[in-house]
Design brief:
Elements: E1 6-10, H1 14-26, E2 30-34, H2 37-47, E3 51-55, E4 57-58, E5 61-62, H3 63-73, E6 78-83, H4 88-94, E7 101-104, H5 110-118, E8 134-138, E9 141-144, E10 149-152, E11 155-158, H6 161-173
Parallel strand pairs: 1-2, 1-3, 3-6, 6-7
Antiparallel strand pairs: 4-5, 8-9, 9-10, 10-11
Helix pairs in contact: 2-3
Length: 182
């Protein structure tokens, strides 16, 4: 059984949220819906989502502030921003946050769904048949999948999220061809 992608969806706009939440559930994502910044921070600490989808304007703050706070603890969390309108200064504020995708709110959610699938989020159960967390890559290189590192002669080489994703896919494929798209 494939493990579902865990999404924390944060939006104060109730009517839009109902429609989008129904779409996410219908497409078999594991979704937690929250309407406020404060509750989203609490929910994140308990359920550790793979992806945050948030509106910029929340009833008690900014969705950008939410992403900023969460990225302090998990810099690799994936994030999408939804909004009805945005000014130039707010758009510039998103750049250092490394938002994965920015969407204007529309009623057709298929484009957002395509982008979620493109993230190619690796779940722990993707490795359920693997007992080890260290993989020998040859030439004295060891890959430590749970900590985003490669070890070479007692030196740690830090991996970016994309590098870790690629190496995880290669290890999982066990010598077979791998397609990879950024």
């Amino acid at each position: 059984m494939m493990n579902k992608i865990k999404i924390l969806y944060v939006d104060s706009q109730k009517e839009y949220s109902k429609k989008y939440l129904a779409y996410l559930i219908e497409n078999e994502y594991d979704v937690k819906y929250i309407g406020s910044l404060k509750d989203a921070l609490i929910e994140h600490s308990f359920h550790k989502p793979d992806l945050i989808i948030t509106d910029i304007e929340l009833e008690d703050g900014s969705g950008l502030e939410l992403i900023k706070k969460i990225k302090k603890y998990n810099s690799n969390i994936r994030s999408f921003v939804l909004t009805e309108n945005v000014d130039r200064d707010t758009l510039l504020e998103t750049i250092p946050l490394k938002i994965d995708k920015f969407f204007f709110k529309v009623q057709d959610f298929t484009e957002i769904d395509k982008e979620i699938k493109k993230l190619n989020i690796i779940k722990e159960t993707d490795f359920e048949d693997e007992k080890d967390i260290l993989f020998d890559l040859g030439e004295n290189f060891l890959y430590e999948r749970n900590s985003f590192h490669i070890i070479k002669n007692d030196n740690l080489i830090a991996l970016t999220y994309q590098e870790n994703l690629l190496i995880s896919q290669l290890v999982k494929a066990k010598g077979e061809c791998v397609t990879y798209e950024i």
